[in-house]
Write a structure and sequence with these properties.
With about 260 residues, this protein is of the alpha/beta class. It has two domains: about 200 residues, NAD(P)-binding Rossmann-like Domain (Rossmann fold); about 35 residues, no CATH class. Helices cover about 45% and strands about 15% of the residues. The protein contains eight helices and seven strands. The chain has a seven-stranded parallel β-sheet, sandwiched between helices. Helix 1 crosses helix 8, helix 4 runs parallel beside helix 5 and helix 6 packs across helix 7. The protein is globular.
Length: about 260
C-alpha cells in the first residue's frame, strides 16, 4: 500500500533506539525525510547510519525547551518545513504512590507531558498554514490500563489521551490530524528495565516475569518495535485521512474491552 507521504518531512523524538527508532525507520521506508533527536550523540549517529535514507540527526534533550527549539530550527534549515511530528519520551520512574517524591512527580510532568506540549507548539503554526499535518503521540497501554508500579506514567499517559482529543478537535478544521498510539508490552530497553524492577519486587527472575507476562497477552508474546513503527507510519499517512482524536491500542489484545 502506498501511504502517500513520500517527500514529507517528519520529526521523530527520542529516536536513537526503541519505539522512536522504529517509527523513524517506518517513515524512512515510506520515503519521508526524517529528523531524529536523542541525548546520546554516538547512539544517534549509529541510528542515522542504520536508518539510511534522508535523515538528519540532532542531539537534543527533549526535557530542555531550548534543545527542542534548536532541533526544530535545524530541521527547518535542512528540510524547509515539518509535516509530521512523532512525540516520544522515556518513561518516568517506576514506583508506587507513597514511594514517589514531589521532585519525581515534577520531573515526570516535564519529561512526559510538557515536552509533548512544547514539540506540538513548535510545529503546529506551519501545519495549519499549509493545511496538512500529522501528529502522533507515543504513550502507553497504562493510559487505559493503569499500573500501580507506574503511577506517574499511568497518570500522565491518560492525560496525553485527553490532550490528543482536545488537539484533534481544535486543529481538525486545519486538516491537522492528531492521534495517540498506546503500545503494549514491546521488547525495548524500557521493557527490560521494568522487567528487572518488577521481578525484584516479586522475588522472581526476569525470565519468569516474561513467561508470566506473555501468558497474560492474548497473542502470547511481546510486540516487536517494528510492529509499532508501521502503525505509526499509517497514522501519519494519507490513508489515515479520516482518523483523528483516537488513542490506538497496539497491545496484542491485553487491554480489556472498555465498551
Amino acid at each position: 500500500m502506498d501511504l502517500g507521504i513520500k517527500g514529507r518531512v517528519a520529526m521523530v523524538a527520542a529516536a536513537s533506539k526503541g519505539l522512536g527508532k522504529a517509527a523513524a525507520a517506518a517513515l524512512v521506508k515510506e520515503g519521508c525525510r526524517v529528523s531524529i533527536c536523542g541525548r546520546d550523540r554516538a547512539a544517534l549517529e549509529a541510528a542515522k547510519a542504520d536508518l539510511g535514507g534522508s535523515v538528519l540527526a540532532v542531539p537534543c534533550d527533549v526535557t530542555n525547551p531550548a534543545d527542542l527549539e534548536d532541533w526544530f530550527k535545524a530541521t527547518l534549515a535542512a528540510f524547509g518545513q515539518v509535516d509530521i511530528l512523532v512525540t516520544n519520551t522515556g518513561g518516568p520512574p517506576a514506583a508506587t504512590f507513597l514511594e514517589l517524591t514531589e521532585a519525581q512527580w515534577e520531573s515526570g510532568v516535564q519529561s512526559t507531558l510538557l515536552n509533548t506540549v512544547r514539540m506540538s507548539r513548535l510545529v503546529l503554526p506551519g501545519m495549519r498554514e499549509r493545511r496538512w499535518g500529522r501528529i502522533v503521540h507515543i504513550t502507553s497501554l497504562v493510559a487505559k490500563l493503569p499500573a500501580p508500579l507506574l503511577t506517574i506514567s499511568s497518570t500522565l499517559r491518560a492525560g496525553l489521551s485527553a490532550l490528543t482529543k482536545t488537539m484533534a478537535t481544535e486543529f481538525g478544521p486545519d486538516n491537522v490530524l492528531v492521534n495517540a498510539l498506546l503500545p503494549g508490552h514491546v521488547l525495548t530497553d524500557r521493557q527490560l528495565h521494568l522487567a528487572e524492577v518488577r521481578s525484584r519486587k516479586d522475588g522472581t527472575t526476569v525470565e519468569e516475569y516474561f513467561e508470566k507476562s506473555n501468558a497474560a497477552i492474548p497473542l502470547r508474546r511481546l510486540g516487536r518495535p517494528e510492529e509499532i513503527g508501521e502503525v505509526i507510519a499509517f497514522l501519519c499517512s494519507e490513508r489515515a485521512s479520516y482518523l483523528t482524536g483516537s488513542s490506538i491500542q497496539v497491545d496484542g489484545g491485553i487491554i480489556p474491552a472498555t465498551f
